């Protein structure tokens, strides 16, 4: 550790007196006694030092903070994170040159004296008295180690660090007391090993292994003589002797170490002279700390892993306890990230959306049946620069994300699943006019009703006029069909189904009890939607998302496994309901609004979604073995996606099937390459016998324009449906709604709002 060299203005006589006092004190400490005379000298005075007998008798070496390595599911490194870059190694894995060099320059009589070197104290006293300053210190390597332990225990607490390094008689007494104990309990070799692992070598490198990697890109066991001498010289003053920033000073210091090694006969004069003539030979590796260094665009996934660790009680009862373990490090975290899927996701994002575009995209892939997150990427890189961000656009706000984004018509399959579970047939027909008012009242949860008059909703295209059955209404993403459907079955079955599928608002608020939720007006995250759709792929079983497969921790040279969060799987719907949804959504990618997202080589299904005012567009889809969600929009919820250029391509209007759909297709195609191609269990949906010629499917999505009072929408979430659902008059019965095909309503927008809560397919 660096020694303080300033004279502090003391005269040579004062310096001599100071060192004499230390030497006398050292003798007393080595004798292990505390006599009244020392109390008379003020050594036991409060404010100067604790009573000598009150000093703890056991020095517990703290677990040294080390780097944590985050791996993908194949064992490849994603990133390293640490509060202190350190890798603890055994003495046998440290070059003998390094061991000799540090002893020679820091404490040449290390193997000859005890905890305190009285000869060294007297030598320093004499030399400093002659020079009139402090040109030589008297701390042994053992004492330096003890001081480093106190600093390590202090962590990043500036107050505790100051206490551990303050130049007071009290601290010296405490150091000496512990140094005696350390000498007795650990022995010389273990002290040397601990010292080389704990001390700071500059350039963010703690311990000799990190230092060897930082300056020479090699292991400590491979250090040559001149390299070891350089590192040993840095310890006294890492800033002054930094070879990266001051080569001249570093060379002088290295040569001083080499000369000292020759003086104490660790090496010959010839070896020292030869080594002095060699260049520094640096091969510097830059510090690689944090998720910003993650490979394959996995910085946000890396950050999500950190958030999981800091938030999940499985790693500790309190956040403080979890943070302590994380900062201590020494973890090897094997995650669920699939490198093939991650690389494909990031490549597709890069092809379709530029980081400098007005809007961004985020994509997530999960594995049905396990909840494992296979990929997580976005167009704006993880970082602090222009067009970069630290906000994870794929996750909820409590895990480092924003307030979410309205999913639009990608929420409709959840409504369909709730209806099917409640007994509605898949060939259920509704009049589905181009435009209508929300039916009112509509039953909600807890015996309440939603009751709002004159709130209009329309389809995306005037040609979309019913009647429609569920198959066609889903393929064409007909808003008025789904509003009639949720009005028929009630709101509560839909929110219940959403809960079973893990669907909740990204901002943590409760889902609004309003029929507009059928059109996706509640803000969700891509991870939430991908995990929900994986439920359909597993024929009705929802599995909560997980990011960590295993963790091993190294503490004090001992390795142990830590428990990790497990995915919780539960049945959300019957197999028949899931199979019916799969049949419906397969039609969406075959000849519906998601036709540009379909995979040619394997079975796929999914749903498009575009919010009103085109602030967000989605495609959420799946195969039997992967589910993925893609969102495109402005995280700040300011830029409408009309007359816009994205990824170098101009768009008059953005739809879920036009930008997110192709991103999903390319992402999934690469992720699934070489993997099995199982089929869905499809069902036969009886014809509805509507008895009319089928309409064209129009431009695209669902065109919800409910425009209710507007929830706050959150960051990037739109203005929401916001009717503050559930405030209706409870005396209304649960209605059974049947709207004639010829019914035409001219909405007067009495529901207020600006129409921003709505969504298109």
TrEMBL record:
It catalyses: Preferential cleavage: (Ac)2-L-Lys-D-Ala-|-D-Ala. Also transpeptidation of peptidyl-alanyl moieties that are N-acyl substituents of D-alanine; [GlcNAc-(1->4)-Mur2Ac(oyl-L-Ala-gamma-D-Glu-L-Lys-D-Ala-D-Ala)](n)-di-trans,octa-cis-undecaprenyl diphosphate + beta-D-GlcNAc-(1->4)-Mur2Ac(oyl-L-Ala-gamma-D-Glu-L-Lys-D-Ala-D-Ala)-di-trans,octa-cis-undecaprenyl diphosphate = [GlcNAc-(1->4)-Mur2Ac(oyl-L-Ala-gamma-D-Glu-L-Lys-D-Ala-D-Ala)](n+1)-di-trans,octa-cis-undecaprenyl diphosphate + di-trans,octa-cis-undecaprenyl diphosphate + H(+). GO terms for biological process: cell wall organization; peptidoglycan biosynthetic process; proteolysis; regulation of cell shape. Residues 678-761 are annotated as: Disordered. InterPro entries: Beta-lactam/transpept-like (IPR012338), Glyco_trans_51 (IPR001264), Glycosyltr_51/Transpeptidase (IPR050396), Lysozyme-like_dom_sf (IPR023346), PBP_transglycosylase (IPR036950), PCN-bd_Tpept (IPR001460). SUPFAM superfamilies: beta-lactamase/transpeptidase-like, Lysozyme-like. Pfam families: Transgly, Transpeptidase. Residues 710-728, 749-761 have a biased composition (Gly residues). Residues 77-261 form the Glycosyl transferase family domain. Signal peptide: none annotated. The chain crosses the membrane at residues 20-45. Keywords: Carboxypeptidase, Cell shape, Cell wall biogenesis/degradation, Glycosyltransferase, Hydrolase, Membrane, Multifunctional enzyme, Peptidoglycan synthesis, Protease, Transferase, Transmembrane, Transmembrane helix. In the C-terminal section; belongs to the transpeptidase family. In the N-terminal section; belongs to the glycosyltransferase 51 family. This is Penicillin-binding protein.
């Amino acid at each position: 550790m660096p020694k303080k060299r300033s004279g502090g203005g003391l005269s040579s006589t004062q310096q001599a007196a100071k060192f004499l006092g230390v030497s006398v004190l050292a003798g007393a400490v080595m004798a292990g006694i505390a006599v009244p005379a020392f109390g008379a000298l003020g050594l036991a005075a409060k404010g100067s030092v604790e009573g000598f007998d009150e000093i703890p008798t056991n020095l517990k070496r703290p677990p040294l903070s080390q780097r944590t390595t985050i791996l993908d599911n194949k064992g490849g490194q994603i990133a390293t994170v640490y509060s202190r870059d350190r890798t603890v190694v055994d003495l046998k894995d440290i070059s003998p040159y390094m061991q000799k060099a540090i002893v020679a320059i820091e404490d040449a009589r290390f193997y000859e004296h005890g905890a305190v070197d009285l000869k060294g104290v007297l030598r320093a006293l004499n030399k400093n008295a002659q020079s009139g300053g402090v040109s030589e210190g008297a701390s042994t390597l053992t004492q330096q180690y003890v001081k480093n332990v106190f600093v390590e225990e202090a962590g990043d607490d500036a107050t505790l660090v100051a206490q551990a390094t303050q130049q007071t008689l009290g601290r010296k007494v405490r150091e000496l007391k512990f140094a005696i104990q350390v000498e007795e309990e650990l022995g010389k070799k273990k002290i040397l090993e601990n010292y080389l692992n704990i001390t700071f070598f500059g350039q963010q490198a703690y311990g000799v292994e990190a230092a060897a990697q930082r300056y020479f890109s090699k292991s400590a066991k491979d250090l040559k003589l001149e390299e070891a001498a350089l590192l040993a010289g840095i310890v006294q003053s890492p800033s002054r002797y930094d070879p990266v920033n001051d080569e001249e000073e570093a060379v002088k210091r290295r040569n001083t170490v080499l000369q000292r090694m020759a003086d104490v006969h660790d090496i010959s004069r010839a070896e020292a002279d030869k080594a002095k003539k060699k260049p520094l030979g640096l091969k510097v590796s830059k510090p690689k700390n944090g998720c910003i260094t993650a490979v394959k665009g996995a910085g946000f996934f890396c950050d999500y892993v950190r958030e999981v660790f800091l938030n999940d009680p499985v790693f500790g009862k309190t956040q403080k306890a979890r943070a302590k373990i994380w900062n201590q490090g020494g973890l090897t975290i094997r995650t669920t990230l699939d490198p093939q899927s991650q690389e494909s996701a990031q490549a597709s994002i890069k092809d379709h959306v530029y980081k400098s575009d007005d809007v961004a995209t985020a994509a997530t892939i999960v594995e049905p049946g396990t909840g494992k997150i296979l990929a997580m990427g976005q167009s704006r890189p993880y970082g602090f620069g222009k067009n970069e961000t630290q906000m994870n656009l794929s996750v909820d706000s409590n895990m480092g994300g924003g307030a979410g984004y309205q999913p639009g018509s990608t929420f409709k399959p959840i409504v369909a699943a709730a209806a099917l579970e409640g007994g509605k047939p898949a060939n259920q027909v509704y009049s589905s006019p181009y435009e209508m008012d929300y039916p009112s009242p509509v039953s909600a949860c807890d015996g309440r009703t939603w009751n709002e008059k004159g709130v209009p909703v329309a389809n995306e295209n005037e040609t979309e006029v019913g009647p429609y059955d569920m198959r066609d209404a889903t393929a064409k993403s007909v808003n008025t069909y789904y509003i009639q459907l949720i009005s028929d079955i009630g709101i509560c079955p839909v929110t219940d189904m959403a809960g079973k599928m893990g669907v909740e608002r990204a901002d943590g608020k409760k889902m609004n009890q309003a029929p507009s939720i059928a059109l996706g007006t509640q803000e969700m995250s891509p991870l939430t939607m991908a995990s929900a759709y994986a439920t359909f792929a597993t024929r009705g079983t929802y599995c909560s998302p997980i990011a960590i497969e295993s963790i091993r921790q190294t503490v004090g040279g001992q390795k142990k496994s830590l428990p990790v969060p497990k995915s919780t799987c539960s049945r959300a719907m019957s197999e028949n309901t899931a199979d019916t949804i799969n049949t419906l959504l397969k039609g969406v990618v075959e000849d519906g609004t998601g036709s540009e997202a379909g995979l040619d080589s394997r079975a796929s299904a999914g749903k498009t979604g575009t919010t009103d005012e085109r602030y967000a567009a989605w495609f959420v889809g799946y195969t039997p073995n992967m589910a993925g969600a893609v969102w495109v929009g402005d995280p700040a919820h300011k830029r409408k996606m009309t007359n816009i250029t994205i990824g170098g391509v101009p768009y008059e209007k953005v739809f879920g099937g036009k930008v997110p759909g192709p991103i999903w297709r390319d992402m999934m195609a690469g992720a699934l390459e070489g993997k099995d191609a199982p089929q869905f269990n499809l069902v036969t949906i009886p014809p509805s016998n509507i008895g009319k010629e089928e309409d064209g499917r129009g431009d695209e999505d669902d065109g919800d324009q409910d425009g209710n009072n507007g929830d706050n929408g959150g960051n990037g979430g739109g203005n929401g449906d916001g009717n503050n659902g559930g405030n209706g008059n409870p005396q209304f019965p649960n209605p059974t709604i049947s709207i004639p095909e010829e019914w035409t309503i001219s909405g007067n927008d009495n529901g207020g709002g600006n129409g921003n809560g709505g969504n298109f397919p």
